[in-house]
Amino acid sequence: MKKIFFVLTILTAIAFSSCANLLVSTPNGSTVSEEQLQNSIKELDARVNGLYYAMNGLVTYMGAQKYIDVYTDVLTADVAIPSPNWGFFYAAEQGRGDDETSGFNGLIWEYNYALIRNANLLIARCDNMLNSPDGIDEDDKNAVNRALAHAYGMRGYAYYMLTNFYTDATNLDADILPYYNEENYKEVQRLSSYNYIIPLAIADLERAIDMLKEYEPKVANQKSYMNADIAKMILAYLRMNKAIIFDPSDRNNDLSEALRLVREVIGTGEYPILPYKEVLTSGFNSVVRSENWIWAVDVATETSRRINSFWSIADIYTYGYASAGEYFAIDTNLYGSLSSKLSSTDIRKKWWNHPTDNNVEVGFFLAPVRKFFDPNRKLNSDKAWLNDLVYMRIEEAYLLAAEASFALGDEANAKAYIKTLVANRDISPATMTKIDGLSGTNLKDYIASNWRIEMWLEGKNYMTMRRFGWSHTIGENHSARKKLEIKATDLKAFSTPYSEKQTNPYIDLKEE
């Protein structure tokens, strides 16, 4: 069949920085001149910046990555929207988002293929420079390999996210996604299966880990850039999801690899758990003050999304939609079960606004007023929108380690990891004694409950719910689906977006 030049129409919807022209240019020819080489070397950092800029820069309500994080947490119904005055997330509140015409479905597809497109462009350009017949000096080679490491890592991350949403666990050979790499990205590709894509995503992440360890980041302490620890965490998540949700054929190996990876991240000692004394004072608002953050964005004036931001709808102390009435709240049934699921002395219960426990703002029942907040803590006040964004933190590593250990049958280590986390959330000796006495299903449920509470509104619990298979009855404070039971099996595979069906001529074609 005649090859069709691939036009990624979604690039028109992406607001990149001034380096946009660097990201959409295509390598020409098989060699580069010395002048071209030096110009390209100088531009590599800008191209890498563009990869990460897309995470918060894609044109959507609050930046693509945080929008996906929030939307999926609302889908689990652990997050409620009591008053959907503007309706930004009302479809999620109703449990919708996976059908082919859903805007959220289209966003997931567009965002991840934007990352893939630009990663492939960068890989192709770097390969071109490394293969220059005149050779390049060691410093230039390091710069190129550093850029390659980021490109491989982000491509692996994008395919990890896509397979999470579009894979039908009952048919891993089903065609679900077109696979684009640095060699074929200019032509439309047929859909490929989970079984085809996942080994390639694993290879990308493994290569990124090795290269990121060897080629030090140019900007020290810049948490918005992927490092080896971030790539390890992504790969650990991928292997956990593969082993438990999608493909148990190599279950113990995948679980063991996931555990090894998170133990390496924990073992660096670079990221201490948020301590007990800061649980209610952190505010999850600052990269500088949050040593436990692994991957984050230090928001500046030029990168702020202003009122169209995570903080506008998550924090009632920020000028925006939450303070005007459309705020997020913890599900009433989940909140009411905290004492039994965790402990009555667990300080995390005070993260949410409740009249008998922590009522600091009337009219915002169960809003996260002590988890996500502007430091000034004045209602509807902050108009700078400069609070930072967290994508990943060390507490996830301990939760993954506990979960993987339990799944491998090592309950002693599962309890050790979860106790290390909970000791920074509950200083009662009785809680540690309680954990020591847990086993079997009770221990599994306790680990799951810590996921649900610790990572609330951070975008991790959609896949966690699927791994643990929990179900719950939706509380009274929801504006939709209240009193209905939601099960992990309700979080099914997404349909191929309508836009892809309209533009990819291979959607319904089979190989001849």
Mean pLDDT: 90
Span of the ends, CA to CA: 10 Å
Helix count?
18
Bin the helical content. 40-55%
Instruction: Report the sheet-strand fraction.
Output: 5-15%
Q: Provide the structure class.
A: mainly alpha
Defining key terms:
single chain, 512 residues, mainly alpha, two-stranded antiparallel ribbon
Concise overview:
This protein has about 500 residues and is mainly alpha-helical.
Care to describe what's here?
This protein has 512 residues and is mainly alpha-helical. Helix content is 46%, strand content 5%. The chain is built from 18 helices and eight strands. It has a two-stranded antiparallel ribbon. Strands 2-3 form a two-stranded antiparallel sheet. It has a two-stranded antiparallel ribbon with strand order 4-6. The longest helix is centred in the first third of the chain and has 29 residues. The radius of gyration is 23 Å and the shape is globular.
Helices and strands in order:
Elements: H1 20-24, H2 34-57, H3 64-75, E1 79-80, H4 90-93, H5 103-130, H6 138-166, E2 175-178, E3 191-193, H7 194-214, H8 228-246, H9 251-267, E4 293-297, H10 310-314, E5 329-330, H11 332-336, H12 338-341, E6 389-393, H13 394-407, H14 411-422, H15 429-436, H16 440-454, H17 461-468, E7 471-473, E8 485-487, H18 498-503
